[in-house]
Amino acid sequence: MDITDALKSKLDLAIEKLHNPFERQFVASQINVNERIIIQQCPFPYQYFFEHSNGGYSKYYARHLYGYSPEPGHNVFSMNNHNLWKKYYGLTENDFCFAETITGNQHFFKLNSDDSAIYRLYIETGTIEKEYDDFSEFLISEYSDISPHESDVYIYEEVKKIRGEASLYPIHIGCIQPVLLGGSELDSSNYDYIDPLTHLSICGQLYSQLEKMKHGIIVKNVSIDPDTMEISIEIE
Fold first, then answer.
1. What is the pLDDT along the chain (236 residues), one digit of tens a residue?
2. Residue 123 and residue 180 in one domain
């Protein structure tokens, strides 16, 4: 892989600081041929990370790097299944999500591209912003030194005071009243624990449907089919 020994050392240091609560053991070399092809299209620093780490959580469990073991909500290939949630935000197969915040915001880069930048998708609003120039900058900046006063850490600690500790990981904390429907991302009482894929699908459907509606519409009711988890929006 085309990365320097100095960069490898920095990546190794960041990897050492990850917390991995997943009990199942899996070896990266066991991934199938199609998954291997995907990894080969990733930037070299991520390829190195993938070969040397099964992902995990940052300090305070506020950020989560996907891995290769098969736990739901942790496996990087399952999380990139386009039809599960990515389609609602207009992401393509080449937008490869590799990490998330505790609130579900996704970090991704573009496969097989000269663009090595790291982007963040804010799932409550559908906003996408460039955050870092490459994966190594992201990993070193986001996972090496985390302050307890950062917004993701603070809101998660406040939610735990209200809802108690999470019973399992991976987990998201999601807005009970979505931001697009007037909810607040700053109010810790507006959060509760939710399964990651359910959270991504619900937020994605809500964003996709509301984006197609005219500004100024009044939403009368939002319902979720308990069997299919499909959202229906009723307007006045």
1. 578 999 999 999 899 889 887 755 666 678 899 999 999 999 999 999 999 999 999 989 989 999 998 888 999 999 999 999 999 999 999 999 999 999 999 999 999 899 999 999 999 999 999 999 999 999 988 887 788 888 899 999 999 999 999 988 899 999 999 999 999 999 999 999 999 999 999 999 999 999 888 777 788 889 888 888 899 998 88
2. no
CB 157 within 8 A of CB 121: no
Would you say 201 and 131 are in contact if contact means Cβ atoms under 8 Å apart? no
Q: Are residues 119 and 175 in the same domain?
A: no
Count of structural domains within the chain:
2
d(CA 116, CA 58): 23
Same domain membership, residue 183 and residue 123: no
Range of the domain at 207: 151-235
First-to-last C-alpha distance (Å) of the chain = 57
CA distance 231 to 48: 39
